[in-house]
Write a structure and sequence with these properties.
Layout: E1 3-6, E2 9-16, E3 20-25, H1 36-41, E4 46-51, H2 68-82, E5 87-92, H3 94-105, E6 110-116, H4 125-138, H5 141-154, H6 159-169, H7 174-186, E7 200-205, H8 212-221, E8 225-230, H9 237-240, H10 242-256, E9 279-285, E10 288-292
Parallel strand pairs: 3-4, 3-5, 5-6, 6-7, 7-8
Antiparallel strand pairs: 1-2, 2-4, 8-9, 9-10
Length: about 290
């Protein structure tokens, strides 16, 4: 297995394909196996990099307490290790929050962001309650096994996917998983989102009702955001809506011109109207929005 020693720790990673680099970030407890479909199906046109966050999967346990800032620095150093100057970040759920932190901390290293079912804060009672439950269960070793089964099964589209994911999930450090969950309660970057000048693609399931407030916050605060709502989909997009998000990513990269020199901050660019398979799409560029049908 490929490992990189970065930021004082050994991280497991997979580097597949060539072209524009996309770095995928998983949420607490899960691992890079959550992005197996992206690694397999996007690597024909992109260089897809997946990795296990410290203390998760095959990566070493973290001696330092896990924070979003620490994970962002790990990503920056992983890019250095791989000889990548600039990349696109792709974060799922809480991994999307880490992607926002990384884009804020190192804006010169990231061409843009792809946020799947993501949030810039955890501010509603239901989500905070769920996170608190996960924090409590991850602090008790007998209970974390049940949490692993529940979260992995909920993110699986088949028994084969479940077997692949649970095998890697069980390698994680309960302490690191617990710390990653705890970050979710206190972190909030909503008031700093306007500092992100690179384009961001937001993908959400139409039936992910609890995250409607978070997609609206991101759309209202990010300067260059494009929104794609996936029909009849819920939260677990990397595994349960892979073909739809891949079509949206390819479309967005083409329309945003990310393989060309970056646009000047604040400059408006017109995006052509396009219909994405299985999706309801709303695009916003520099504060101008429209529905695409």
């Amino acid at each position: 297995m490929p490992f990189a020693t970065v930021n004082g720790i050994k991280l497991y990673y997979k580097d597949r394909g060539s072209g524009l680099p996309i770095v995928c970030i998983h949420p607490p407890l899960l691992t890079s196996a959550n992005f197996n479909y992206q690694s397999e199906q996007l690597s024909d046109a992109f260089r897809v990099i997946t990795f296990d966050i410290r203390g998760h999967g095959a990566s070493d346990q973290s001696e330092a307490p896990i924070t979003y800032a620490l994970i962002a620095e790990d990503i920056r150093q992983l890019l250095d290790h791989l000889g990548i100057d600039k990349a696109i970040l792709c974060g799922y759920s809480t991994g999307g929050t880490v992607a926002l932190e990384a884009m804020l901390a190192y804006p010169d290293r990231f061409l843009g962001g792809i946020l799947l079912s993501a949030m810039s804060e955890a501010s509603d009672l239901v989500l905070r309650t769920r996170i608190r439950i996960a924090i409590g269960l991850s602090a008790w070793k007998p209970a974390i096994r049940l949490l692993m089964l529940a979260i992995t099964w909920g993110n699986s589209d088949s028994s084969q996917t479940f077997r692949q994911m649970i095998k890697r999930t069980r390698l994680g450090s309960p302490r690191s998983i617990h710390q990653y969950y705890r970050c979710s309660l206190s972190y909030n970057c909503t008031d700093r989102l306007a500092r992100i000048t690179s384009p961001v693609l937001l993908l959400y399931g139409e039936k992910d009702w609890g995250f409607k407030r978070y997609r609206l916050k991101l759309m209202n605060s990010l300067r260059h955001a494009s929104l794609v709502l996936l029909n009849q989909k819920k939260h677990q997009l990397p595994t349960k809506a892979a073909s739809e998000i891949h079509a949206a990513i390819r479309e967005w990269v083409d329309l945003s011109g990310l393989e060309q020199p970056r646009r000047e901050p604040g400059r408006k660019e017109d995006l052509q109207q396009a219909e994405l398979p299985g999706a309801m799409t709303g695009m916003e560029v520099s504060g101008e929005s429209r529905e695409l049908h």
